[in-house]
Amino acid sequence: MQLPQDPSNVTGVLAAAFPSRPAREVRSVLAVMPGTTFALVRPIEVEVEGETVAIPTRIHHEEPEADREQSLSGTQRLLLSQRTRGPR
Asked: Which portions of the chain have biased composition (kind: Basic and acidic residues) (predicted)?
């Protein structure tokens, strides 16, 4: 995925945290996540499978509505479940 140029584009910023291979699934998950914001600090840039991804350091979001979450595929639900995980 291309690194975001516009920090006000929340979908672009969050999508840039993933390599391009799961791009469709990531965008589907982001479509069901209301009220997402993130800290306006420089993201952590790392290389994954030869691509640079930019991971926001802090993300704040509302919980998705249950009926919208039900529309996601298994892969998309797995991505959604990672939203509350952090370094352990």
From this structure: 59-70
Cα angle: 46, vertex 15, 6; to 5 degrees: 90
Q: Which long-range contacts (CB under 8 A, 24 or more apart) does 78-83 make?
A: 79/22, 79/25, 79/26, 79/29, 80/29, 80/32, 80/33, 83/33, 83/59
10-48: per-residue pLDDT in tens?
Answer: 778 888 888 888 888 888 888 888 776 666 677 889 999
Q: How far apart are CA 13 and CA 83, in angstroms?
A: 14
